[in-house]
Amino acid sequence: MEETLTHTEARVDETARRPVTIPGFGRPLKNEEMVINMGPQHPSTHGVLRLELVVDGEIVVDVIPHIGYLHRCFEKHAEAMVNYQQVIPYADRMDYVGAMNNELGYAVACEKLLKIKVPERVEYIRVIMAELQRIASHLIAVGTYGLDIGAFTPFLYCFRDRERILDIFEQTCGARLLYNYIWIGGLSHDIPASFVEKVKDFCRIFRPNIKELNDLLSYNKIFVERTANVGVLPGDVAINYSASGPVLRGSGVKWDLRKNDPYSIYDRFDFEIPIGTGKMGTVGDCWDRYMVRVHEMEQSLNIIEQAIDKIPPGDVQSAVPKRIRPDTSEVYVRTETPKGELGYYIMADGSTSPFRVKVRPPTFVNLSILPAISRGAMIADVVAILGSIDIVLGEVDR
Amino acid sequence: MIPQEISDALKAKFGDAILEVKSDGVFDPWAKVAPDRIKDVCLFMRDDEALQFDSLMCLSGVDYTGGKLGVVYHLHSTKKDHKFTLKVDVTVENPHCQSVESVWKTANWHEREAFDMIGIVFDGHPDLRRILLPDDWEGHPLRKDYQVPEYYQGMKVPY
């Protein structure tokens, strides 16, 4: 009987057997595996992020993130180009949708180095600004997340509300996105006369809008189907990865630096730490991370309402030092930004500019979890998982 | 635990590997560890019942100038709520240090960044590639003696 080759044996030639390896993926590719590029120009990447997906059909085997497209040498600038005060505009440009919180972290770190006590009025205004900024940042996170999933309308509603916050900022310091408002030891401008009234108006208008957002998006059947039980991050894994912010809290870990390691005057306010409960699926899934942000906006409103009536009189620039020359020392200070734990490690050498500034950006650390929670998901789920981490590439790459 | 107790526990366990301890007059008390023992020290600090440093807040590479490089580890325990800082010194000629990626996963990207920017080589890291700069970049920009290159891939850098 004549011997014939089977279908597969006949087609295999030697070149096809040569193993394909890609940097960052531990083993050679199997024959059925394929590499797909997502980004750097892809709407769901929230900036210039490139993801290399190793896929087997529609299932994601591994994700290899490539970052650095937006690297602007923040740390080099801070060390070699500018003095302590001049770092603040650069800090603005890291997380450019949460600039107030970046400034606040840097100012708190420098004040600790210099042992400055800032006036009460400054502390209260800072807290109100930081919480308004947190709401604005979460509105972007929540709105664009809906956009990722395919819901366009909530995005417009979120930006409508964010506009009110930006108006308040513009009225206070002239800028809408990058403020240079919180200075070391003080603020660049005092608040205008109508500030208190405007903030109260905002709180009154915005609180019902959260319910509107829940009706539109949070409990929408399609949205829940796309996000519940997707990208589950267990709490212990989140801690081992040093996740922070809504990503950590979404995994059911009650941890918020405003409560657990208070800075500024956050220990004076009464607010809850929302955590993921697995209401729609598993604890630590995309829906939990999303919902933590929605609840945090309510808590930020609570803080603002407690603080707004207590702003004491005073001069906001009375403690601003004319020349900053800390003694040789080093400090690590972390604050809770909308994205998570923002750490500044500042080494001073007795000169007018820092010897070393290392930033621990929350989204850089949170993004490093992406491969771990994307393995085994569908390609479309990677978009949902990435959106739920809420990255800002300006901060990841600095 | 207070920092004094933490450094005492480390000294009792590792002896010679703890080169220097400082807890007075600094914001964050620290201990200096030999670069070839840092992984054991970190593993002990993570797993010891009394210490439980389950979170690595930050890992920074530093160029101290004069041929000295360093790595600074800021640790925190979410269960015990105490902090401690570890430091490792290496030299420009021999910039090798043990990787702690197997202890805390978050160290993976932090160590890649320290390798990229300062040029510290982490032995035992599973994937030590440049992270922020292109793969073919030459030099380590956060070194204090770094010269900005005039050309990149034959193209004149326009400033």
CATH topology of chain B: Beta Polymerase, domain 2
Q: For this structure, what is the CATH class of chain B?
A: Alpha Beta
Q: What is the domain total for the residues of chain B?
A: 1
Total of domains of chain A: 2
Structure explained in plain terms:
The complex is a heterodimer of chains A (398) and B (159). Chain A folds into 2 domains: 46 residues, no CATH class; 324 residues, Orthogonal Bundle (Cytochrome-c3 Hydrogenase, chain B). The longest helix of chain A is centred in the middle third of the chain and has 30 residues. In chain A, the strands form 3 sheets. In chain A, strands 1-2-3 form a 3-stranded antiparallel beta sheet. Chain A has a 3-stranded antiparallel beta sheet with strand order 6-7-8. Chain A is an alpha+beta fold. The radius of gyration of chain A is 24 Å and the shape is globular. Chain B is an alpha/beta fold and 159 residues long. In chain B, the strands form 3 sheets. Chain B has a 5-stranded mixed beta sheet with strand order 1-2-5-4-3. In chain B, strands 6-7 form a two-stranded parallel sheet. Chain B has a two-stranded antiparallel sheet with strand order 8-9. Chains A and B meet through helix 3, helix 10, strand 6, strand 7 and strand 8 of A and strand 3 and helix 3 of B.
State the gist of this model.
The complex is a heterodimer of chains A (398) and B (159). With 398 residues, chain A is of the alpha+beta class. Chain A is 46% helix and 12% strand.
